[in-house]
Design a protein that fits this description.
By secondary structure, this protein is of the alpha/beta class. It folds into two domains: 7-121, Rossmann fold (3-Layer(aba) Sandwich); 140-218, putative n-type atp pyrophosphatase, domain 2, CATH 3.90.1490.10. Helix content is 31%, strand content 22%. Helix 3 crosses helix 4. The protein starts with 6 loop residues before the first strand and ends in an 8-residue tail after the last strand.
């Protein structure tokens, strides 16, 4: 990544996609758009189960446009390729992704980008997991846990802030610091990429299969409807 180019960022709303975006921007590559896939109902994101309003609030706080399109799991790949045409029409041929070391994820990203005429970038690839979390925290980003796999960690961690103390607690019970094995997902609400923090409240915890989810409701306490 020596020459300058613009890119779109695959955006989950969580810490890894945020750190990948941060590294790309620090390398002086302008981000033209965030990109998030929403489920076919339009109710929440495919990756972290976030409401579109919460994702839009993140994008607004960072001053970066966001493209959200619907897709079923079966239609995910075809929809990605349609979105690739949108980016290419804008002259954007590069995409950044937040994978760390899961080979099947990288293989899929590189294949689908190649087939779509795009160039994939993985700024976090093979980074030491604890070091990546430390970088995220020390940079000044703020995030909370919004999904936990209850087969791998206790529900009590929902809503907890990502900080050094929490990371130590997770590692003490055998949970990966990055949650790269699917143990948990996060929602980033402030940090150096943000012009202002994202105001939000949390809804009532609900369960999907073996996952417990803490809904994020964009808006301040006075704006959000309980």
């Amino acid at each position: 990544m020596h020459s300058q180019f613009s890119f779109f960022a695959s955006w989950s709303g969580g810490k890894d996609s945020c750190l990948a975006l941060h590294r790309m921007i620090r390398a002086r590559h302008p981000c033209t758009s965030l990109f998030t896939m929403i489920d076919e109902s339009g109710k929440h994101s495919r990756s972290h189960g976030l409401y579109p309003d919460a994702l839009a609030a993140q994008a607004k706080a960072m001053g970066i446009p966001i493209l959200m399109t619907r897709a079923s799991w079966e239609g995910y790949e075809a929809q990605f390729k349609k979105n690739a045409e949108v980016f290419k029409a804008q002259g954007v041929l590069h995409g950044a992704f937040g994978d760390i070391d899961l080979e099947p994820h990288r293989e899929w990203v590189e294949r689908i980008c190649t087939e779509s005429g795009l160039i994939a970038h993985e700024p976090l690839w093979y980074g030491a997991r604890r070091e990546l979390v430390n970088e995220f925290i020390s940079a000044g980003f703020r995030a909370v846990i919004i999904v936990v796999d209850t087969n791998q960690m206790p529900i009590k961690f929902l809503g907890r802030e990502i900080d050094d103390g929490l990371v130590g607690e997770l590692e003490a019970i055998g949970v990966d610091a990055c949650g790269e094995n699917g143990e948990f997902h996060t929602f980033v609400y402030d940090g150096p990429l943000f012009r202002h923090r994202v105001d939000f409240t949390t809804g009532t915890i609900f369960n999907i299969n073996n996952h417990s989810v803490l809904p994020i409701i964009a808006g301040s306490k006075t704006e959000a409807v309980k």
